[in-house]
Amino acid sequence: MEFTERNVLILIRSKPYGKIFNFEGWRTSIGMFGMDHEPTILFMGDGVYALLKEMKDLPIRMFKSTYESFDGKICASKKSLDERSIDSSELIDNVEILDPESVGNLLSENEIVVTF
To answer: What CATH number corresponds to the domain at position 70?
Structure first.
């Protein structure tokens, strides 16, 4: 069986506290680089809370720096941010804010979507 590099979207919708799903999304995305895939992380719903600057003490910060060292792309749904009254200035650095059309394009152009 031949290995094929794939575009993978890691969709994080869960809160960054109380459960490990958000954390595992970051971890999975880093693992994808080790398998020669090109992951993109998209935060939607309550997952956008993990991108707040005030969440400094979460282990997610460690994964963010590793993820960025691979030139990983971090995106957030503008609609999800707006619904939670979160301004882009409150987010960690290097987050691309996507309008609903861009979110739809991202979901459709990736071969694999893994949801957390």
So the answer is: 3.40.1260.10
